[in-house]
């Protein structure tokens, strides 16, 4: 088969890496890809937003299957374009991807189909939002309705901080179109985790859970980022809670989308929190999570091409997993998620017991330089989470000694057995 992966981030590199191990893949393309994908895929210099060129490339090159990685192309209707052209594509339509594109829509869907989540109200009027916040008190959560690159969420410890967030989003247009409307919701206490599933209509095939770390600095301090590290499976969750999350959240959501005329085919990602009342939804994504994909896909023993083919054809892919732990730590550019320098040379680091997933790098003659905020993820699999984390951190010494980079030193630490 000829397979095309659309995207350029760590998530897409992880997908490419998994696909490259398939005996069914003859040629693997990545558009536009990143420097780390060059060994496994032919990079195609077409942007993720260039629908016409992507469809034309797939047709001209006899691509058998296309996988759309990022959220923005999905919400712009890229999957619809491939479907209309009679091409096989893995990713939800624009209508189905709204589950990620609008937090208000997602909340309405959950409310209608009795899917457990935090209480909320949506606002376009800043003064009304501030009145509601004062009535509810803090802590409280303020979210931009649309896509904001993982940064449109403020967990406000005080009413004043929440009101400032409202003004930033609604009055100052902090996130542009994404914050023309906001969702203000109840703060939920508990440990967060992620649960992704392969979905086709009402058919849901769940993956292992993962634990993401979104805050920039150790101790869950600092601003929210796109994710500073992850591990899988999440260690704090019982199988009873896992089953509840699959049945009461993922399956209900998939069925609800079908009922709404927005049947979903692709990866449904649920960002969940384990509360005293059981798992509840924090957010939905319409694609593989990043960096969760980087620690979940290595644990999948199945051929990913066969899994995607089975799901698209309505067959049960019979997912199987290594009985191991996988952990990954993101190396970021100094200054991220704020401003940062590009073109910083990456030091050499030992890779014998780890793997590297690139996100913000460019290749140069004798190595790599940075091109983004989250530079790469260093990860590994081991028999226990402790061993996986120890191996990853042992390999990161070179970055620790370089002022151009930083990484969290406590990914997974509170979940280790020792």
TrEMBL record:
It is an enzyme of class 6 (ligase). Pathway: Purine metabolism; IMP biosynthesis via de novo pathway; N(1)-(5-phospho-D-ribosyl)glycinamide from 5-phospho-alpha-D-ribose 1-diphosphate: step 2/2. Its EC number is 6.3.4.13. Residues 107-313 form the ATP-grasp domain. Keywords: ATP-binding, Ligase, Nucleotide-binding, Purine biosynthesis. Its cofactor is Mg(2+); Mn(2+). NCBIfam families: purD (TIGR00877). This is Phosphoribosylamine--glycine ligase. The lineage of its organism: Bacteria, Bacillati, Bacillota, Bacilli, Bacillales. The gene is purD.
């Amino acid at each position: 088969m000829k397979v095309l992966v659309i995207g350029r981030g760590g998530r897409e590199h992880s997908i490419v890496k998994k696909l490259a191990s398939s005996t069914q893949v003859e040629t693997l393309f990545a558009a536009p890809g990143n420097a780390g994908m060059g060994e496994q895929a032919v990079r195609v210099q077409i942007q993720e937003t260039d629908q016409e060129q992507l469809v034309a490339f797939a047709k001209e090159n006899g691509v058998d299957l296309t996988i759309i990685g990022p959220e923005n192309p999905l919400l712009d209707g890229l999957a619809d374009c491939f479907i209309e052209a009679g091409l096989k594509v893995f990713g939800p339509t624009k209508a189905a991807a709204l589950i990620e594109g609008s937090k208000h829509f997602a909340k309405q869907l959950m409310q209608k189909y009795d899917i457990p989540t935090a209480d909320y109200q949506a606002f376009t009027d800043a003064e009304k939002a501030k009145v509601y916040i004062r009535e509810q008190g803090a802590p409280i959560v303020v979210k931009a309705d649309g896509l904001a690159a993982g940064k449109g969420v403020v967990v406000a410890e005080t009413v004043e901080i929440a009101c400032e967030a409202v003004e930033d989003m609604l009055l100052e247009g902090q996130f542009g179109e994404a914050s023309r409307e906001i969702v203000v919701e109840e703060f939920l206490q508990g440990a967060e985790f992620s649960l992704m599933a392969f979905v086709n209509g009402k058919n849901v095939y769940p993956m292992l859970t993962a634990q993401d770390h979104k805050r920039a600095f150790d101790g869950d301090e600092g601003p929210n980022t796109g994710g500073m590290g992850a591990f899988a499976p999440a260690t704090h969750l019982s199988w009873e809670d896992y089953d509840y999350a699959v049945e009461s959240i993922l399956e209900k959501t998939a069925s609800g989308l079908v009922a709404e005329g927005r049947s979903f085919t692709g990866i449904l990602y649920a960002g969940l929190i384990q509360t005293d009342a059981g798992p509840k939804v924090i957010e939905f994504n319409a694609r593989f999570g990043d960096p969760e994909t980087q620690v979940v896909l290595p644990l999948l023993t199945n051929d990913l091409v066969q899994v995607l083919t089975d799901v698209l054809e309505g067959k049960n892919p019979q997912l199987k997993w290594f009985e191991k732990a996988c952990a990954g730590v993101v190396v970021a550019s100094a200054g991220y998620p704020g401003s940062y320098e590009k073109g910083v040379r990456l030091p050499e680091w030992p890779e014998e017991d780890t793997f590297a997933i690139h996100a913000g790098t460019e290749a140069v003659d004798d190595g790599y330089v940075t091109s983004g905020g989250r530079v790469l993820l260093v990860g590994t699999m081991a028999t226990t989470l402790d061993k996986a984390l120890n191996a990853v951190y042992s390999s990161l010494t070179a970055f620790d000694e370089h002022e151009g980079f930083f990484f969290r030193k406590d990914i997974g630490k509170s979940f280790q057995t020792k």
